[in-house]
Design a protein that fits this description.
The chain is mostly helical and 213 residues long. It is built from 10 helices and no strands.
């Protein structure tokens, strides 16, 4: 074989090897973690909460909200909610660091317990009825909830209402107040449940049938 042909074969071999290495390196770097997959899919991770105290409280409430199922998932004997929340946080950290595939063991549980939920989802998780709707069938329920808040003198500012409750119990601002309350409830329905905020409690009090039970 001539030096020219040998050189050509050598060059082709080097080129093939280099191409294979490039493809191989791209394959390796294209893998992604469960964490990155979920965030790129629109999920918000509980671990993204920066304040340590807020994060600790969020894990505690997550554990508390479905304690029996989470204890079973983690094979956990601990019943204390703070320690249970800590254990759940560690489990989520471990699972989120794994390489993503649609066959990752426990992926649905990661989606269920390691991400921030909406207030709407949290109401359902905690056995409360959904936020009242604009359907006429709910009109009497809105009024009952409103009257409950009025009777309890619940701060009107919780929903963006101005002024105070009328000193005269006979005075009724319901017709002007309820549209404002309904808009606020609709807005908060899809907002994040964050354990360190009071928004969830306010929504439950002002926007659900459970509030007047």
């Amino acid at each position: 074989m001539s030096y020219l042909m040998k050189g050509g074969v050598a060059a082709a071999t080097v080129g093939t090897t280099a191409t294979g290495a490039y493809v191989g390196s791209r394959y390796l770097t294209n893998t992604t973690s469960v964490s990155k997959h979920l965030t790129s899919s629109g999920y918000k991770l509980i671990s993204s909460i920066k304040n340590p105290d807020h994060l600790k409280l969020q894990w505690k409430e997550e554990f508390k909200s479905d304690k029996a199922s989470i204890k079973s998932l983690l094979n956990l004997k601990e019943d204390d909610e703070s320690k249970g929340g800590e254990a759940l946080g560690k489990w989520c950290t471990s699972k989120l660091a794994e390489e993503y595939s649609d066959k990752v063991d426990g992926l649905e549980s990661v989606k269920k317990y390691c991400v921030i939920k909406t207030i709407k989802d949290w109401l359902i998780r905690n056995g409360n009825k959904a936020i009242l709707t604009e359907n006429q069938d709910d009109n009497s329920k809105w009024e009952a909830t409103y009257n409950k808040r009025k009777q309890a003198k619940t701060p009107r500012t919780q929903t963006g209402l101005t002024e105070t409750w009328p000193a005269d119990s006979g005075t009724d601002k319901k017709d002007t107040d309820l549209p404002i309350i309904k808009r606020w409830c609709k807005e908060k329905n899809d907002s994040d449940f964050l354990a360190y905020e009071d928004t969830y409690s306010h929504v439950k009090d002002w926007c659900t049938e459970s509030a007047n039970a």
